[in-house]
Predict the structure.
Amino acid sequence: MISFAVVADLCVAFVVSVLKAVVVWFVGKWIIGRLLDVLKKMQFLERLDASAANYLMNAAKGVMYIVLALAVINVLGIETSSVLAILASVGVAVGLALQGALSNLVGGIMLLVYRPFNVGDYISASGAEGTVKDITLFYTQIHTVDNVRISVPNGALMDTNVTNFSAEKTRRVDLTFNLAKDENVDTVVQILKDAMTADGRVLHDPAPFAALLSETNEAQTFVLRAWVDSADYWDTRFALTAAVNKAFKEAGMKTPAARIITDK
């Protein structure tokens, strides 16, 4: 029979190992925090954009915690080689179970390499539209214009079309206006041009454009095209819409008459 003294010694040894493991865990977490702070201040990270820097920081953090977990296991008296052997033996099963996660991890790496978008860009992809706030190991965080956070799997972003509204420095504002058939074309075009000229955000090169686009028996459709800095796109679009409609009202312009359809 095992004596009480042996059991007591085993219990004490186990408690000591647990306490050591707890100390190692918290000290390790503190060291990881300090190392991450140092990494954030390194010059090579400062030269990267926010997307790449965040991804590398997340990857470094993951690796550090894996090393810390192995250290804690070793302190508990469990051979790390045995743990690694067990992990290797179930690797196939884990890989199958985590296919989605691995796909997202690879997708994050591909996003970092091919760079279809960066943090701060306004994009539309996988049914989500908004500003990219963060690219993590597995998910990309997108904030919509009404401040809703959407987490999109990185794998899905690599398997779909991504529309990046912020990729280019300039964008073109396209607006159409419907007016009555008898309105003077030259007068309408001049109103459109004056509205673009009055807005200081409209670029001169390429030159603003306005013209009659199409006409029917009841209406004329006019088009306005103005190039602006991408950051000014929405503000300029709203401002031009309001300015043109105000100018039309002041000039007494008429909209197309509604057609009344009666059953015969």
User: Anything to note?
Assistant: Residues 258-264 have pLDDT under 50 and may be disordered. Residues 4-40 form the longest helix (37 residues).
